[in-house]
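Exercise 7 asks you to align residues with tokens for two separate proteins.
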Amino acid sequence: MLLPSLSEIEQLHTDLAPDKQTFQLVYTHSHIVWELAAQLIERNSLNVDKAFIQAGCLLHDIGAYKFIRQGRVGALGDYIRHGIEGYSVLKEKGYPEALCRVCSHHTGVGITREKVLSEKLSLPVADYTAATLEEKLIMYADKFHSKTPQFNSYDYYKTYVSQFGSEEGKKLESLKKLFGIPDLEPLAKKYGMKIR
């Protein structure tokens, strides 16, 4: 699979960011998600494509630039659409379908077709759940850091996601069984951010 280089990824972030503050917010978040995923790969000795996961982590929120200004998430439009926007951005660049899917399939703990319909979400009716081990890992690592910016403990995120239905909490639990919980303390110190 032909993946973009790290410099190409950084350039894409630079080109899409509406301002420096937003670039710093999204780009730093993306790097933190990669560090969390790398920690879980090492701890679990996962047999996965690390280069793909790194690129996926660094690009999963590339569609967020359409919805953030001056570092304010959701400042423009419906933020739930940032995943499908990212899919479109990467597809236009000619990147592999598997990489494009990382963008559209990482929101929450996966959005089902039924949820799109029942909650009348502003998304095309489709299934947006992680299918591969790589997709699941990127989606899961993303849950431990927010663009507020701060880290999310497992308990914090479980409480948050459970407000969207008990099934969401169960999905998070199954990901925890698969990957465990990353050690947030060293990264919180490194980036000077709190853990909630």
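Second protein for Exercise 7:
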Amino acid sequence: MKGIFIFLTNFTWGIVQTLAGLLGFLIHIRKPHYWYKGSIVTVVRGHWGGVSLGAFIFVCADIPKERAPASDFINHEYGHCLQSVRLGPLFFLVIGLPSLIWAGCFDNWRQKRNKSYYWLYCERWADKLGRVRRK
């Protein structure tokens, strides 16, 4: 029942990011999909990581070995799905944009300062909501 609530909330309060996710889902309609706690997970080829857009989660088929175990990886992305439920139309500004910039532009900064990708507030919060425990 909780999963249905999360799914429907993302299609109302979180409609902006869910529509973007629906477009991605339709583009990848022939890829493997499965239901996960109120979201639809789509598995796409490559070593690119993952992204959550409302009720839709997209993950790479081959999660790189340096990333968290598969279950933690999915739960982290699910945490972003829950952020979408909580923030609704503010999700892109508060979570999406900072996460995208953090992933794409700060790799060298993180390495120089020995900071994990999950150090940024929005990534730590996604871990907390997804119940991911990192060492």
